[in-house]
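Task 17 of the worksheet. Students: predict the tertiary structure of the chain below and write it out as structure tokens. Keep your answer in the requested format; marks are given for formatting as well as content.
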Amino acid sequence: MTAQLEAPSSAGPRSSALAQAFRSNQTTWIGAILLTAVVLAAVLAPILAPHDPLQQDILVRLEAPSAEHLLGTDAYGRDVLSRLMHGARISLLVGFVSVIAAVTLGGALGIVAGYMGGVIDQLIMGVMDVLLSFPTLLLGLMVVAVLGASLENLIVAIAVTEMAPFARIARAPTLVLREQGFVEAGRALGFHPVRIMAVHILPNLVAELAVMASLWLATAIRTEASLSFIGLGVKPPTATWGGMIREGFENILDAPWLALFPSLAVLITVLALNLLGDGLRDAIDPKLRRE
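Model answer:
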């Protein structure tokens, strides 16, 4: 009877499909390599950064890229490369933590709505529809404006903006899975709904949620940069990509590299996540797999 209650396992086929996606889709490798480079630069920033990101030297302010400062210096004489590497730590931290929170909360709400149905489903998805009606940046702006500008509030704001899409992604397959035989058998044996949702339904949604997480991580990083650009991110002098772009625009005519390099960092990271997400999508969707 125990074997009959196990959710269908697809770890083996999905693992081979993932390997096939990496073999057949070269852009997936490009995304993985670029993302790995960005993550390593962020993690090893205290070791690899050539200068203290907060150290000011007014004598070399707005210095062009040189052997001493590979990406130049900003208006306070701080090394742009060092600030770029340390800024990656903030952007990736905000992105990863906010997406994990959005996946956890949104996925749980979507599973509950799909499994329970009725009034609970209507109530939960009604709230999610309200969140979806706001543009991501506008909703994040509203949340940060209410809570105040800080690292923790920035994470909360981005998680709130991204929770609704994950709820919808989790709800749709749950509506199908709740009618499957292994779920019906669990209900017949008196299993608690929480056990059914956590043990028998959730494992079947992990792959889809992971793909969406990789794609929405790019959105989270863009949102963090946008909020920091308008002054609602982490407060100066902490280095953030959005804050560096804002400071660069103040000196765009005298030192265009100040805005160029952090903008390229955001572009490369978002591109890497989108390329990697496309490969993961190919791996789990039979209609999109390349032969």
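Marker's comment: The longest helix spans residues 80-116. The radius of gyration is 22 Å.
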